[in-house]
Amino acid sequence: MEFVSGYRDEFLDFAALLFGWFRKFVTEKGTMGTNLEGRWRQLEAQIRRLPQDPALWVLHVLPNRSVGISLGQGAEPGPGPGLGASRLLGDEPPLHLRDLSPYVSFVSLEDGEEGEEEEDEQENGKESSGTEKAEPQEGGEPAPPSRELPQEAKPPAESEVTQQEASCEDGCREDRGEDERAPEKRKGRRSEAAPLHLSCLLLVTDEHGTILGIDLLMDGTQGSVGQSPGTENLAPRAYALLCHSMACPMGSGDPRKPRQLTVGDAHLHRDLESLVPRLGVKLAKTPMRTWGPRPGFTFASLRARTCHVCHKHSFEVKLTPCPQCSAVLYCGEACLQADWRRCPDDVSHRFWCPRLATFMERAGELASLPFTYTAEVTSETFNKEAFLASRGLTRGYWTQLSMLIPGPGAPRTPWGGTPSLSRLLNGDPYQLLQGDGPALMPPVPLDPPRSLFGSWQDYYTWRGLSLDSPMAVLLTYPLTVYYVITHLVPQSFPELNIQNKQSLKIHVVEAGKEFDLVMVFWELLVLLPHVALELQFVGDSLPPESDQQHFTMQRDGPEVSVRPGSGVSARLSSGTKEKGGRRDLQIRVSTRPYHLLQGPKPDLVIGFNSGFGLKDTWLSSLPRLQSLRVPAFFTESSEYGCVMDDQTMAVATGGGTSSPQPNPFRSPFRLRAADNCMPWYCNAFIFHLVYKPAQGGPVRSAPGPAPRPPTPAAPPVPARRRRGEKKAARGPRRRR
Fold first, then answer.
1. Given this model, what pLDDT does residue 160 score?
2. Contact yes or no for 694/627 (Cβ under 8 A)
3. Which of 111, 168, 195, 379 keeps 20 to 30 A from 105, CA to CA?
4. Are 677 and 326 in contact (CB under 8 A)?
5. pLDDT in tens, 686-703
């Protein structure tokens, strides 16, 4: 089995959800064309019988005047222009947003220059902010099916609007046809054809922001900007979208109709007045006039799940967990049995089912945290975007945690060059950790810690933080490093006497996200004030322009200075003067796989949420660590990941890993899992590498990985069959 929850970028799952729903929506609209009036009457009757949602629903009409989408074929062959959606968003294990850039890019329709890639588009606060958040993969990847949009499914008595709509669609298909043929000539290069213009986005949400349906109005190429049709011809599409959003809501929940609907456009509101009552839905008396896609608007987290085998979403099929382990989601008995019988045996659910059952038993332990918001953030239905937005955490480093919140603060990779340093390092090391309200980090305590901290409760008390503060979500990285240095290394490698060292050189391996949050490591100087630390971030996912950069953070002066050259030196103030000498935190960057790194041997290696089996470079980096024989500690977001890491370590080096233990400084935010119900948390577990003994050397005694179950589990069967088998089994036992 293979799960990528906790590793895969959430935006990719979001894009896959949008694409899957939109494709189903377009397909069903096409099938209704065979018997238009009868099918519409049938669908309307079905919707009138649906239960009523107490929440208000909103039909948003979001115009887009400045940003177009350019499609490219990319370096890998696919079934058509661009990479196939099933390969890009379904079957290919964890991709990152930058992986999409060869296939989808943004183009300015005003000056013809390419815009930033998806992750940057999410962070700008322009008028079309809400549009681009839903557009990138939705407008890019489903282009092949949208080029073949069937005739619009229209309710009766809309013939005049029908002619206008059909005319628009014909024009759209011609423009898209030119864009479709262009990539075939370039064979793997990015498309240079005129961009598609997404003139308008129709979006159905409830009042809480949960997305229920989406429709895209393509308006051809750059030359058509400013000539998009008015909303007078949107009524048939909007009505079809509303019907499908009620019968098959994209977000969470069963089919339902709203108690009331409001429309964000006056013309469309007027056109829908005679149509919406057919569905048994009350239309607001007047159109909504006050809402707009402002930078602060956030969509609620989508909680649609997928089948682990066929990847169908919960809006397509009913998903149920495995009856034995309750960990893995399936759409039916066929997918469960197919997963149960996979070959080889150790990738089948038959092999993993008893293990996953034990992993599920740890859910309560992992959710045992002291914060006032623990129950909310450890729930399976945790709405991360709403939580952050309600607390004003919509800028700075908080944008690294969120899927859709725009970030008017810092860029995604603030350490890309000297100008960024001079802009961001203004003497406050906690600048990027703040929200929109009062300061989240209190002043540094005057006295250093008198004892070692082993829990969030102890650290928060000493640091002066309220248990209502969400800072643990960002501080999990430096506090995990602190815990490894002060607790785990002395336990597992006492001969190193690490607590008495005055300087430590630490390599942070495969560091991508952690480098984007680099200023949080300033807290190590607060926790270990008498140790000079050097952190070297290593990995080929780091920004190439940051290669070989280095800078120093010092606690002995209030000023900040930035010096040009091969490195950068920044002097930051902690607010207090150190007693007994100055201690520094040096940051170095190497944008290459760890096995290609040259330089002195470190004292310690640390990796966060590593996923050894998900990246081929680990098969070379782990032998490199084996040759160095340096203490190496890694975190994982689940016990499943720890078991897979142990197997990868055995294959790569012949060694193994220690038994994973829960990290007391794990992030309190539960991570979203699409195809399973296991508890996933950033930095949830910690283990260290157990190296294969050197030839003729002593064997280090260390606990090994979890043992395999002694006998395979029995396949899950329906309850009635199990009772019958129990009766049959009791007979032979009585005869003995």
1. 35
2. no
3. 168
4. yes
5. 999 999 987 755 444 444
